[in-house]
Amino acid sequence: MLTTAPYLRTRGAPDAREFIISTLPPLTIPLRIALYTLHLLRVVLGLGVLLLLYSIWTLSPYGSPPPPATGYRITSERSTCPAYTSTSSLPLPSKAQIQDFLAAALSSVPGRLCTHIAKAAPAWILVPAAVAWLYTLTLRIHTEERLLVLRGLGVQASSTKDTLLGGGATTRFIPADKIQDVVINEAFRGFRPISYLVVVVEGEADVVVVFPKLLPHKRVVEQVWRGVKDCLYERPRGRNWALDADGKV
Amino acid sequence: MPEHDGLMRVFWPVDIARSDLPGVIVGWRNSGSDFVVVTVLDHVDPKSVENALKTDILLRNAPHSRPRIFEICGQSSMHVLGLINATPNIEYDPSWVRATTNAADRVPILTCPKASSIQIILFERPIPLRMQYISLDPIVLSLADKDDTSLYSVYDGAKAEGERLDKKNKEKNVELVEKRTGHMVLKHAPSKKNRALARIVNQINWTWELEHLLQKNVALIGTRPKRTLSVSERVVEHATTMRDHVILWVWDMIVLYAFPIIRTAFVFALLAHRLAAEVLLLILEWRARPNSPALKDISATAQQVEIRLQQFCYWPMQYVKLRLRKNDWESVTTSHPDYIRFYNSLWLVANDVIIGIALGSYIIDNADWVADTINMLLGQYTINALQSSISWLMGWPAGLKLNSELALFLGDLFLWVIDYWASCIQKLQPLLPRIVWFIGFSSFAGASLPIALFSDLLSMLTVHIYSFYLASARIFHWQLTILLSLFQLFQGKKYNVLRNRVDSCDYDLDQLLVGTILFTLLFFLLPTVIVFYLNFALARMVIITFKAVFDTMLSCLNHFPLFALMLRTKDPRRLPGGIRFELRDTQNRHIINPKATTHFQSPTSVIILKPTPLKFRAMFHQYFQMGSRIRKHYLSPRVLFCLVTGRFVPPIHRQNLYSLQYSMLPARRAGIMEMWEALNSLPAKKRPVKLHPYGVTTNVNMNGRRHMNGRTTREL
């Protein structure tokens, strides 16, 4: 429901055109709401996993023992960290406040559930599982890959990163004088042949694959290829790349 | 190539001052329709600007040589590119662009009658004073002036097969690339615009500095009133700047008289240091025969000392290079990697010393405890554990019925050597606190030195395990070879050395009989030998792992890209990793500005040029390379084969491992004379005539006058 099959969209002027292949369907209001709820759910689940990690930490021999009852805590604060009480006027939360907050989180219902889980299963299973779960929570739902063609400047291929933490997209700009050619290549992937767009870069052993993650259908690739040729090179007189029906030059 | 289409390309700095005043756009004209805007000069006549640009009036008072600008930017002069917010009645060149700005939008609206379509490429100017710049290729942090192969040219009897395989792969790749070039159907000749990009990148890097220079000089051509200060104003200025005059005068005296003395003394100290380093380096690099290992190939300590000495030899040269940077424009970006390299290595050494002082004082304070611990560990793990494991093998280990006699013989042999070794260690024991104290003391020269010393100590104190491993491997290998050839005999075959193949052979009955009996005997004795071999091979592997940990620590202390990481978080623009473009949506621009579309407006696409910072992966590229090298060496099937057949597993060559650390040093260190010349070529410290070439723009005039005054006072 949240994703579609990769589809092509273009924008920009004829001399600066961007080809976008994305799995994100056009944003409608229900979809927006669904996405926001999903993000909220992710944040909540992430916090839950962090709480679980904290409860594992408190149960481990290295961590501090779970904070005891309130009366005792106040005396211990006074005796151990007098320095923090003086700095409590600062907007930054003091150490005691953080401890209070953590203790409150641990004694809440999810906190007790986490402690229960942490007691039930050994730490060496729980910690890797929690880390793996955190990683899956940061994964992106949609993949978007772009090819920006600027006449006179070059082409730029970019694709979104796998996780939300990695920042925007990985981009690779190839200056126009380094582009040897833009071709459609065929290869086997598993048991089926695929066609993919390739930029051959001068002086480099490896070619640059455009849309490496989504690897769109041949029809789309061909369309993009024609578009790239059209946009990148000045059209010789009486010649039209787009009209070359058989794809040969 | 003539331009067929009227595509006009304008690089526009977004952060130049914006105003609604009429002005002249000045910049580089790379071709008839390829402009890089440098600045906008307000309230001047375009004709006089053009003349001033031709006669270099606008570049007057340049702090450094003017031809250098044109050399790097690749054009012979700047031009008037167009007018901004001009009144319609002004006459202008058809090739000029007309720009209009409005307060709401950062992007100017450009029109040009010649162009059918326009690309505006917006960029934020890198600030050369902060050493920011953009580049098409990622910045290279390691010195790449040498071949990798030169490192292993000597002493590579056991040159890894992987290297040869790598080379073969590379050759194959080159061949494939050539083939691919042949397959290209149509060759597109790059147009002028395509080729200009590298030049444009330089021009963009220069924009900031040139803009400041032009803005400073615009008063020379403009009609702006030039007013000299009145007498009373002068008196006030003198009074307010009196303190500065005195400080400036004192500083000038210091520069004039004290500096040369300090400088000469420093140069001589450096030279003396360099001489001492040369002697030490010669000792460290001395080889008895061209193929024998030098001291630095054997010992980690020697290697560490060598790296430090090499760094000390290289620093003056690097410093000279960086000092010469000051005599050039700030926008020249070629020495920025050198700057990063120099400060990275300085910082690493400082860090190393700081950690070393902490570590050293701890070790010295607890020398007895450390010595006891080392002694205990040595006794427990390298002697007692070995002894008990050997005695365990001499019985029937894990219910395995070995040959008791052979096991007893081998075990006794090893136990006897261990006993002797234990007595040696015993003799060493009273010395150990002294050694530990020495190690602790050495760590004031950096934490890497005690680590290297511990690494060497480990290899020295476990030399018996190494020799056991060698001996048992030799026995095992010998037995395995005999078994193989006897197996051939058992089958009635024989290995033909001349033809390098197995031939069938008619053996006599007695030959067959004796061979078979020997085969049976050796075959039944094999498990006993295998068990001993495995025991020692395992111990050896553990030691190699420990040494690998030490080596990793060393390489982290010596090579970690600390400075680069800091720059990456502080100011990513100082570590350019290429550029990227973003296309901005332009549909609604025309709708918002209906007034601008009154006259002809060509379709415009707005593109934003952004620098991409260097990837973290590229920063740690050397580490990845080293990791893959180690993996190739130790986790290859060849090593497994060597282990299984009892052949000696060659340790990875130190040079191979340390190529990481040498990547920060030149392949050949500069000679003493070279250094002397370089140090003397340094220009003398400038007297403080111009302290701030780009002071805050408001008091540029004040600065100039103040300096003039400073000079006159001195002459009086």
TrEMBL record, chain A:
Q: Which organism is it from?
A: Anthostomella pinea
Keywords in UniProt for this one? Membrane, Transmembrane, Transmembrane helix
Q: In which pathway does it act?
A: Glycolipid biosynthesis; glycosylphosphatidylinositol-anchor biosynthesis
Family, according to the entry, reads as follows:
Belongs to the PIGH family.
Instruction: Output the Gene Ontology cellular-component terms.
Output: glycosylphosphatidylinositol-N-acetylglucosaminyltransferase (GPI-GnT) complex
What InterPro entries does the record point to?
A: PIG-H, PIGH-H_dom
Q: Which Pfam families match?
A: PIG-H
What superkingdom does the record give?
Eukaryota
Instruction: Indicate the transmembrane segments per the record.
Output: 33-57, 121-141
* Biological processes, Gene Ontology terms: GPI anchor biosynthetic process
What's this protein's name? Uu.00g072930.m01.CDS01
Q: Locate the Phosphatidylinositol N-acetylglucosaminyltransferase subunit H conserved domain: which residues?
A: 147-212
UniProtKB/TrEMBL annotation, chain B:
> Carries keyword Cytoplasm?
no
* A biological process from GO: GPI anchor biosynthetic process
Asked if the keyword Secreted belongs to this entry, the reply reads no
Sorted alphabetically, the keyword list is:
Membrane, Transmembrane, Transmembrane helix
Name the UniProt record assigns to this protein: Uu.00g146030.m01.CDS01
Q: Where is this region: Disordered?
A: 694-716
Q: Which organism's genome codes for this protein?
A: Anthostomella pinea
Transmembrane portions of the chain: 246-272, 345-364, 406-423, 435-454, 466-490, 511-536, 542-567
